[in-house]
Amino acid sequence: MxxxxxxxxxxxxxxxxxxxxxxxxxxxxxxxxxxxxxMLADLAxxxxxxxxxxxISNYHLYYTxxxxxxxxxxxxxxxxxxxxxxxxxxxxxxAELDNLPPEISEIRITGGVxxxxxxxYYVNLVSLVREKLPQVHIEAFxxxxxxxxxxxxxxxxxxxxxxxxxxxxxxxxxxxxxxFNSALRKKLCSRKxxxxxxxxxxxxxxxxxxxxxxxxxxxxxxxxEDWLDHLFALRELQDETNGFNSFVPLALLPSxxxxxxxxRVAFTEVLKMIAISRIVLDNFKYIKSLWLYYGSNGIKQAxxxxxxxxxxxANEKHRGVARSAGSGSPAYLGREELVSIxxxxxxxxxxxxRLYQEKHVYH
Length: 363
Ligand code: SF4
What we know:
Layout: H1 4-15, H2 22-30, H3 34-49, E1 52-56, E2 58-62, H4 90-98, E3 106-110, H5 119-132, E4 137-140, H6 143-153, H7 157-167, H8 182-189, H9 195-207, E5 212-218, H10 224-241, E6 244-251, H11 267-280, E7 286-287, H12 291-303, E8 309-312, E9 315-316, H13 321-324, H14 335-344, E10 348-352, E11 358-361
Parallel strand pairs: 1-8, 1-10, 2-3, 2-9, 3-4, 5-6, 6-7
Antiparallel strand pairs: 10-11
Helix pairs in contact: 1-3, 2-10, 3-11, 4-5, 5-7, 6-7, 6-9, 12-14
The protein binds iron/sulfur cluster.
The site of iron/sulfur cluster has 11 residues, from loops.
């Protein structure tokens, strides 16, 4: 438990907009009671971003589950020889888009790292979505996917980003960050692009005017120092580029995953992660909690620990990453349910459109 004078000092620091340093952040994780941490995160949230909670009507488009990286925690990917392997043709994606409800504001495109696909496939995919749904926000591909496409095509990553931006790409997904500790990253996903390459592509995208999102994968073998190293590196990067939209903490969901030593993370650890993210990442406006991972009761608690973004209604045709990895949540949560969850927490629901433009505020 933090002594009252230390708690008061941290409270004053957050109220006056001064930064929390590494040492204080560490003591919050190792010494503070969960309710003390939650109180400070909620204060930081109120002071920095107010009472609005954002969500978007969106659709997850998984174009392939074939992946040569086969990360140890991933239950979504398949080898190309698997009977469950798929890669959608552009015509199949077109038919899928034809069946979407009209209220969709965002298409999130992601998939495995599939060497059979060339640059033209990715460009055609984005062009197709832009052509069929000119008003939607297209959030697509992780920096690691961009790195793979660049290396495979023998072109620089900035050229790939420019091609995709011209085709209609609006922002990059939060994927591929996993954990910045290189030794742990090697254990979890030895084939995936390095942290240095993730950062390089992220910086390139921000300089080209393509915002992105960041994440952390936790609940495996990492320490609190690994959490903090990751968060402080992101804070520094955001200071430099101001190109991140949101931060997404992702707890490892081991059911169905292949990593032998994985364990189901306690929900108190999830709340700690959300809270410390809100406190340390003072230059990120949106801290996301994915109901697809935590369920409706979990996100109500997350909203009291610093979160202000519930991502989207997430309507997906094929099983996506969270559900493949054992999340027991449904594939779709409607607008009314999200609004009701947010109102239960005495917060103001806001349905957003492209880049957090407010489409509807539910007073
Ligand atoms: S997490 Fe992504 S990169 Fe890793 S195996 Fe799964 S689909 Fe491939």
